[in-house]
Design the sequence.
């Protein structure tokens, strides 16, 4: 289940830096590459998550996932001699990021997908770019270009087209409406988590070190919740569960989140969050390859809308202070 100079629409006002054309092209390619890497990883994690479902409580699986990911990130920082020490302001930002991104958002996503189809949750998460634009405009005083708003809107429309048939066929009873409400809470939590990540950036926190601390804080919060609610702490000693856990922890968490927050901090949170709109088409392709699913022209039309919105976000002018 599904965060940038010339590309960006949500970087901080203080991030304006003169860049040479060659440097801009290189930065653009790196940002696009980061978006592609995250989308490819998160577009396949849904399949890995299916190997996690069954005998182990979802909260427990998330604790194992982010607990292992935090340890890997801390170890990687120490080996690469990257800073992991944070000051008080940076720790506070990491706590907020961990609470909203790695604890609340994931907890509500898992609960939501027990009630509604994953495609509906994907549609709701496609609004993350819009929420980031609004949040950073209201709280951060940042102004996004009209092209950025239009690009984010195309992303939302594209995912709606991709998932439209599933939404129409879904049972919109009380059970499903509760699931939709949980998905809305989850995407709002992710947007708030992005804001705390930006606060950490403003405080000068290192990307990898602060992400490791945020994962650790989020894991601790979920563990406390698990103990309070009496979940059974266990791990399924099967190849499928263990391999999927390693994939979700190392690639779905360490690699993807490190790249995501790097793109978000250096190129803007609107472009980074647009990954949530690119992920569903990749997930559809995985479904075609591994489950024999078939999609028609509406899916292709939705994919074109998503990619068009991505192009607009990339070309949108840099934000300025209000």
Sequence:
């Amino acid at each position: 289940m599904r965060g940038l100079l010339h590309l960006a629409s949500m970087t901080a006002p203080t991030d304006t830096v003169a860049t040479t054309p060659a440097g801009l092209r290189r930065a653009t390619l790196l940002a696009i590459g980061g978006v592609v890497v995250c989308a490819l990883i998160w577009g396949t994690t849904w399949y890995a998550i299916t190997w996690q479902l069954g005998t182990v409580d979802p909260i427990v699986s998330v604790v194992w996932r982010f607990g292992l990911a935090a340890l890997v990130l801390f170890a990687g920082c120490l080996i690469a001699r990257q800073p992991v020490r944070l000051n008080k302001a940076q720790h506070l930002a990491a706590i907020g990021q961990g609470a909203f991104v790695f604890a609340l958002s994931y907890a509500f996503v898992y609960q939501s997908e027990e009630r509604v189809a994953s495609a509906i949750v994907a549609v709701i998460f496609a609004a993350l770019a819009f929420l980031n634009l609004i949040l950073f405009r209201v709280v951060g005083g940042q102004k996004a270009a009209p092209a950025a708003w239009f690009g984010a809107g195309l992303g939302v429309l594209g995912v709606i087209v991709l998932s439209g048939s599933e939404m129409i066929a879904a049972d919109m009873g009380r059970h499903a409406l509760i699931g939709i409400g949980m998905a809305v809470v989850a995407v709002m939590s992710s947007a708030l988590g992005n804001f705390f990540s930006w606060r950490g950036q403003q405080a000068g926190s290192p990307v990898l070190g602060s992400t490791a601390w945020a994962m650790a804080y989020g894991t601790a919060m979920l563990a406390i919740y698990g103990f309070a609610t009496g979940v059974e702490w266990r791990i399924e000693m099967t190849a499928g569960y263990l391999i999927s856990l390693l994939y979700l922890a190392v690639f779905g968490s360490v690699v993807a989140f490190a790249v995501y927050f790097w793109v978000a901090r250096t190129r803007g949170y609107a472009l980074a969050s647009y990954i949530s709109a690119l992920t569903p088409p990749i997930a559809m392709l995985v479904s075609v390859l591994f489950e024999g699913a078939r999609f028609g022209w509406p899916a292709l039309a939705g994919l074109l809308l998503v990619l068009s919105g991505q192009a607009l976000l990339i070309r949108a002018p840099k934000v300025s202070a209000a």
Notes: The two ends are 33 Å apart (CA to CA).
